[in-house]
Amino acid sequence: MTDQPWTAICRVDDIPRAGARRVARAGATAVALFRTDDDQIFALLDRCPHKGGPLSQGIVFGHAVACPLHNWSIALADGQARAPDSGCAARFAVKVEDGIVMLDASELRHHARDAGVIAIAATGGD
Ligand code: FES
């Protein structure tokens, strides 16, 4: 259980501070990678728990993202919408090693739908 295979996605510096990148998955909703202005990296399903807005295109502030569609605030650490709204975006495990951002390979295939990573595209940032 400790031998967790990780998939290298990009360098930390490939994600703009207070911005995001979208990691596409074949046959499944993409994963949004977020970099806060204090250089922490988080990963959530790129789908707002409200009506499915693309969180990777939202505004990152502190450790949250404001959905671009209706401005719900989603906590990056756990995907929870902030009150008075409620709902949760699926969270993905993320690891940074030697400046490389990695996602759990099994989660990429199976978590919140299936399939593998096929591409990474720039979104967001300031
Ligand atoms: S879809 Fe995100 S706030 Fe409505």
Describe the secondary structure blueprint for this structure.
Layout: E1 6-11, E2 19-25, E3 28-35, E4 41-45, E5 59-61, E6 64-66, E7 73-75, E8 91-92, E9 94-97, E10 100-104, H1 105-110, E11 117-123
Verbal overview:
The protein contains one helix and eleven strands, in the order ββββββββββαβ. It is mainly beta. The strands form three sheets. Strands 8-4-3-2-11 form a five-stranded antiparallel beta sheet. A hairpin with a 2-residue loop joins β2 and β3. The longest helix has 6 residues. The radius of gyration is 13 Å and the shape is globular. The C terminus is likely disordered. FE2/S2 (inorganic) cluster binds next to loops.
Offer a quick outline of the entry.
This protein has one helix at 105-110; strands spanning 6-11, 19-25, 28-35, 41-45, 59-61, 64-66, 73-75, 91-92, 94-97, 100-104, 117-123. By secondary structure, it is mainly β. The site of FE2/S2 (inorganic) cluster has 9 residues, from loops.
* Rg of Cα set: 13 Å
Strand content: 35-45%
**Largest beta-sheet details:** 5 strands, antiparallel
Instruction: Compute the separation of the termini in Å.
Output: 39 Å
Task: Give structural attributes.
126 residues, mainly beta, 5-stranded antiparallel β-sheet, 3-stranded antiparallel β-sheet, 5% helix, globular, binds FE2/S2 (inorganic) cluster
